[in-house]
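queue> holo job accepted (iron/sulfur cluster)
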Amino acid sequence: MNENDTERMLAFLKDHRYRPTDTPDRADLILINTCSIRDKAEQKVYSTAGRYKRLKRNNPELVIGISGCVAQQKGGELLKRMPYVDIVVGTHNIHRLTELLKRVREEKTQVVSTELYGSIESGEFPTPEVDGVKAYVSCMRGCDNYCTYCIVPYVRGREVSRPHRDVIEDIRRLADRGIKEVTLLGQNVNSYCGDVSFPELLRMVCRVDGIERVRFLTSHPKDISEELIYLFGEEEKLARSMHLPIQAGSDRVLERMKRRYTVKEYLKKVSLFRRLYRDVSISTDMIVGFPGETEEDFRETMEVVRTVGFDSIFSFKYSPRPGTEAATYTDQLPEDVKQRRLEELQATQREITIRRNRLLVGRRMKVLVEGESKLDRTELTGRTTCNRIVNFPGDKGLTGSMVDVTIRVAYANSLRGEL
Ligand code: SF4
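queue> job finished
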């Protein structure tokens, strides 16, 4: 989501002749796009901004801005803590960035823009500025779920969906620029509620000429419908992978998180998906050490991890976010308990991931070539429909093509193959 916000900022700034630079010392504008999902990410904002402060001594015209969720949450407080910051721009005001920049330059003032809006203004989502073969396209913003640990509904506002025509228009433009894979993006993407249903929107995206693969992120287990699961069988372009955050494997913890599904309901959806389609990958998010999580709750989580055999897990220790319900729970767990559980979960998952990757050895798979491998310029890198990274020798002229690769070796985070 943050990367997509950065792309939107680049698109607005490009119209005002700004270009990205890798050298902060030469920048006229430094924007720190922030995340407040965990405390660590928030703390990084202050240290990063502090590093850029000194650049103002040599270049008094330099403008420093803070955007994203921390900007939204803290607003003007950031200017008190960091008086050298010029702009604070919240999550709903990215499209106002150039106007704010103009005010800072002309009026020599600091500006804060953090209003949240209940609708999407026209022009708020420009077609993303991206190189390569893949792009993310937002089809909605915000979240109405208010899971008790999560800050998102407070910093990204209520759910609002974009009209399907705008989304499809963006994707057509991207396809014209050579993009082959799009990921529809939303905090809670399958509760998309524009002028068509989410499965209908996906169908339309799959029909855009030039687009060869379609993904979507992030799904809420309660909103995954059977219609959506069956759509994978009808639409070839729909990638056979699903990121479906379960967060915990204990019903008691899920209830305290206000996730509004049970483990049994989750497992039913996952097993239907796996039963219907070969090679599908299922990834998830897990939080360990949620307040009041007992050893037995954690054992239930580990049981689910083994039962499902996720292809990958993004796992985190619970981190209380001020302003959320769970931060007020009095049964917070000690750090060492959270750390031990996280390590156990990650060690088990590592083995499962390798085991699942090994199942693909010897198989021939369609890979969308993304370009040269960063580690070895003589090799190409791409992804399978089930979202595995595959490296293989080949000519870089194949970038953007869908090729057949036979998988030869499986590692923990990638596969090796040959054309
Ligand atoms: S559904 Fe996701 S974004 Fe929304 S509140 Fe829950 S965790 Fe946060």
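queue> The two ends are 33 Å apart (CA to CA).
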